[in-house]
Amino acid sequence: MAQGPEEYEHVDARGDDEKSTSDTTEASTAADADADRDAEATSLARRQARILDACRRKDIEDLQAIAVSNGGFLSDTIRSQAWPVLLGCRIDGRGEREEEKTSDSWTSLPRHRDEDQVKLDVDRSFVYYPSEPTQAQLDEKRAELSALITEVLRRQPYLCYFQGYHDICQVLLLVLPPASRAAAMARLSALRIRDFMLPTLAPAVSQLRLIPDLLGAVDPELSAHLSRIEPYFALSDTLTMFAHNVQQYGDIARLFDALLAREQVFTVYIFAQIVLRRREELVALDEPDMLHFTVSKLPTNLDLEAVIAEAAALFEAHPPESLRAWRRISKASALKTARDVRACASQSLDDGRVFFERQLREMHWSDRRDRVLKAVWVNRRIILAIAVAAGAVYFRKAPIWANLVSWSTPNRNRQ
Question: For residue 2, what pLDDT is reported?
Answer without folding.
Answer: 45
